[in-house]
Amino acid sequence: MIARTWRGATRAEDEQAYVDYLEETGMSAVRALPGNRGTFVLHRRVGDRAEFQTVLLFDSLENVRTFAGDDIERAVFYPEDDRFLVDRELTVAHYTIESSVSGSKK
Questions:
Q1: Res 57 pLDDT > 80
Q2: Count of CB atoms within 10 A of residue 79's CB?
Q3: CB 11 within 8 A of CB 101
Q4: Is there a contact between 18 and 10 (Cβ–Cβ < 8 Å)?
Q5: Are 58 and 2 in contact (CB under 8 A)?
Q6: 77 and which of 21, 30, 81, 83 could share a cystine (Cβ 3.0–4.6 Å)?
Q7: What does DSSP assign to residue 106?
Q8: Can you give the pTM of this predicted structure?
Q9: Helix extents (H) in 1-106
């Protein structure tokens, strides 16, 4: 399994609106793709900004290409991102997931 990660930031007051926008655009689009294993939007406030990290899980790099195109290292942006983002990474990172933990053991 592959994790695709990206980071960006908005103004603190746009935090929830950007969460909603991410859900309407990238997250829902990715979840509809074959080979998708899940999506996460991590966010926190730091001073006057909200920092974001997205984690998209795919079965393979070929499934990543379905979403990102041939240049899988380039971040994918949507039309209203410029309205929200005050900082963003233009590239992404891919990690191979070797194991995962599910639930708690008692």
A1: yes
A2: 7
A3: no
A4: yes
A5: yes
A6: 81
A7: -
A8: 0.89
A9: 15-22, 28-31, 61-68, 81-84
